[in-house]
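Working notes for the structural subgroup meeting. M.R. asked for a predicted model of this chain before we commit to crystallization trials. I am recording the input and output together here so anyone reviewing the notebook later can reproduce the run.

Input as submitted:
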Amino acid sequence: MKKGELRSDCPINYALEFLGDKWSLLIIRDLVFEGKQFYKEFLKSKEGIATNILSDRLKRLEQLGVVESEVYEKQRTQKVYALSDKGLDLIPVLIELIIWSSKHKDGLAVEPQLLQQLQENKIQLIQNVRTKLLKRGTE
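Returned structure, recorded in C-alpha cell form:
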C-alpha cells in the first residue's frame, strides 16, 4: 500500500490507519488526561514506550495535524506538545473507550466519580476537558 492510500473507504478503517497503533492513542491520552507536554514526560508513562517509537509517533501525529509542537521558551532545546483542533476532536473517542473498557473489565484505573459524571452528562464533561486543554494552550 502506498503512503496516503487507504485499504478501503470504510470510516473505521480510515481511523485505524490514521491513528496507526496503540502508542498514538496513548500519547493522545497523556496529552488529554495526564497533562503531559514534554517528550520526557511521555517516556514516563506506565506502558513504557521506547524512545524511538515515541519520537516516531510524535512526528507522525504532527504530520497528520493531530499534535502541534513549539519550542519551549524556558529551555529552547525542548519542544512543548499540544493537541490541535483535529486532536481535540478525539476526546469523545477516548471517553467512549473509557466507558467501553470499564463496562467490560473490572479493576481498571478509572475513578468511580468519572464514570458517574459520564453517565450523568457525558457531553458536558467532554466540553470541560476540551476547554481545560484550550486554556492550557494559551497560558
